[in-house]
Amino acid sequence: MRPLCPVQISGVGSYLPEQRLTNHDLERTLDTSDEWILQRTGISERRVLESGRATSDMAVEAIRSLCDSTSLDPSDIDLLIVASVTPDMLFPSTACLVQSKLGIPSTWGFDLSAACCGFVYALSTGVAFVSSGMRRKVVVVGADAMSRIIDPKDRNTCVLFGDGAGAILIEPAVQPENCFIDAFHEIDGSGGDSLCMPAGGSLQPANAKTVKDRLHFVKQDGSTVFKFATRKMEEASRRILERNKIAPSELKLMIPHQANARIIRGTAERLNLRNDQVVLNLGNYGNTTAATIPLAMQDALLEARLQKGDIILLASVGAGFTVGTTLLRWAY
Ligand code: UT7
Predict the structure, then answer these.
(1) Do the domains 180-329 and 7-172 match in fold?
(2) Which of 76, 287, 321 shows the shortest CA–CA distance to 189?
(3) pLDDT at site 237
(4) 41 lines ligand 1 (CB under 6 A)
(5) Is 178 a catalytic residue?
(6) How far, in Å, is the centroid of ligand 1 from the Cα of 128?
(7) DSSP string for residues in 108-143
(8) Ligand 1 center from residue 175 Cα (angstroms)
(9) Burial (Cβ within 10 Å: 0-12, 13-18, ≥19) of residue 102
């Protein structure tokens, strides 16, 4: 997917809840250990959203942080896309709730559901709107409160996830050479059962049995997802690099979805990327689903690892299965 006109990311904002949940905290309630979690996933701690607050609150905070770091006035946002699998409720959309909380009367927006690929899919959607001239200032938010849908008694899943939000601004490019280059996307619904939340939708509406059977929590066949993610992260990365004639050595950074350090390191090794070309920050936040890539972008900016003109590869694989890679030249 190549845009009709050059489009850039003009800013990044983020939000992380204050409360930390460390591996040692989890050792107290689960049959697990800091050593197992660290070795198998690379995660040390994650953030947990306080009760009474929801995904829309984190999205609002991330957008406020984006406005603080750019000259964006919230009332200038003409499209708001919220990627999340943990909307405040099934409807109204979280985008509507965010719009109301920000008090921006004349905007448009919607939610996008693609699990861990939510951010890259929403980014491509935003790019399509700006490059076609239909919108000029699009804000894409990846926000997930995974703590709300993980089973605190299931050690297979509850050690993996955390809460957080990241937001970006997409606008027409100021310098046409520093822009979004291309995106590659794919879905494979045959993997649906491997990572899902079985109940709470139209197939199994909430009832006493679904609650008793703990079906409103994330279920994952970790090893199937691991194998698929490992294969597809590399395949989708190679595909977008090759069709744009960019060698891995030309990448300043690969910013991958943060699910497991072993998936990221394995992909980087097979692509012959050096450690300094890869952003790995899940140790501090765990897997925040749609928020991992903008949170990693924010950390890369804070560490001065992103400069104007740098070629960046985003890569993600998630529930669905969903697959997405994005190539861009950093614009500021
Ligand atoms: O973001 C969306 C995409 N998601 C992913 O990409 C996640 C992909 N999957 C993974 O990251 C990994 O498969 C996991 C981290 C979930 C699991 O790692 P693994 O190396 O695949 O472990 P496993 O599932 O094969 O389990 C190995 C053992 C099992 O024990 P037995 O059956 O060998 O006795 C598990 O019961 O580790 C056990 N185990 C644990 N032990 C201590 C599973 N979870 C834990 C735990 N603490 N938290």
Answers:
(1) yes
(2) 321
(3) 98
(4) yes
(5) no
(6) 38
(7) -EEEE--GGGHHHHHHHHHHHHHHTTS-S-EEEEEE
(8) 45
(9) buried
Identify the pLDDT of residue 225.
Answer: 98
Q: Cα 264 to the chain's mean position, in Å?
A: 15
Q: 77 is written with which tokens?
A: 């946002």
Domain 7-172, CATH:
3.40.47.10
Closest C-alpha to ligand 1, atom 35 = 156
Is pLDDT at 3 greater than 90 in this prediction?
Answer: no
Q: Map out the domains of the chain as residue ranges.
A: 7-172, 180-329
Q: What is the DSSP string of 86-98?
A: S-SSSSS-HHHHH
180-329 has which CATH code? 3.40.47.10
- What is the Å distance from ligand 1's center to 271 Cα? 25
> Can you tell me which atom of ligand 1 is nearest the CA of 41?
15
Query: Is residue 116 annotated as a catalytic residue, yes or no?
Result: yes
Active site annotation includes 287: yes
Q: Cα–Cα distance between 119 and 230 in angstroms, integer?
A: 19
The residue ranking higher by pLDDT, 4 or 101, is: 101
Identify the band that residue 2 occupies on the pLDDT scale cut at 50, 70 and 90: confident
Is residue 4 very low, low, confident or very high in pLDDT (cuts 50, 70, 90)? confident
pLDDT tens profile 181-224: 999 999 999 999 999 999 999 999 999 999 999 999 999 999 99
For 106, counting Cβ atoms within 10 Å of its Cβ (0-12 exposed, 13-18 middle, 19+ buried), the class is: exposed
Residue listed under structure tokens 């891995």: 248
> Does 156 sit in the ligand 1 pocket, CB within 6 Å?
yes
Bridge pairing between strands 79-83 and 138-145:
parallel
